[in-house]
Structure of ABC transporter:
Amino acid sequence: MLTVTDVVKTFNSGDRTIKPVNGVSFSLEQGSFAAILGKSGSGKSTLLSLLGALDKATSGDVVVDGVNISTLPDGKLTAYRRDDIGFVFQAYHLIPNLSAKENVMLPMEFAGASHATRSQRAAELLNQVGLTEEMHSRKANKLSGGMQQRVAIARALANNPKLILADEPTGNLDDETGEVIIALLRRLAHEKKTTILVVTHDQALAAQTDRKFRLARGKITEDTKNPA
Ligand SMILES: Nc1ncnc2c1ncn2[C@@H]1O[C@H](COP(=O)(O)OP(=O)(O)OP(=O)(O)O)[C@@H](O)[C@H]1O
């Protein structure tokens, strides 16, 4: 469902050319839980931003569920980001003075869903990520880090995306909470058949995935299938 073919990203910095992504190819089946590992500066975040259409590849193709996003016009990319991709970040990026439920409802509002649909679906998603009804009405900034990340995951699922991209989703969490979040992502990938790709330094997280890639100087140097 995700096929990346010979993707290159080049930046010009003064008279130097930087290639943070330098010919990356891989494909993932629908519902896989995969990790990209690599040292700082190896190109992980740049690659993720290309897959999420936050930036355009200099060359190569990114095909998500049959749609080549490298050739989509800008106008269609906004809808792609909104409808087909869920983003999860290290620092959660919730709106602090909105409730957990309101945060999850927001992407559905942008997609034009009715208030009743948004409310019902947000409650279902928050239950699925393990937040009790009482938590739904709490302001995001009154929740612990682990809970905020659960809300962020529920929000990423709001428009039923084909692909979730997560940048260091356990980076701000203690080990125990991080493990709970990893187990949640793994379960969601397998049960909901949402493909989840995480960028991480966290070996414990990578060990729980179905597949892990190592990136070094913008190239994949290792591609390992983890035993089920
Ligand atoms: N917009 C940009 N303009 C110029 N150079 C950039 C740009 N974005 C990234 N780079 C460079 O590309 C290289 C890879 O950066 P990237 O953030 O993708 O690495 P990373 O593996 O995600 O690192 P980290 O783990 O520290 O987040 C770095 O040398 C960075 O300075």
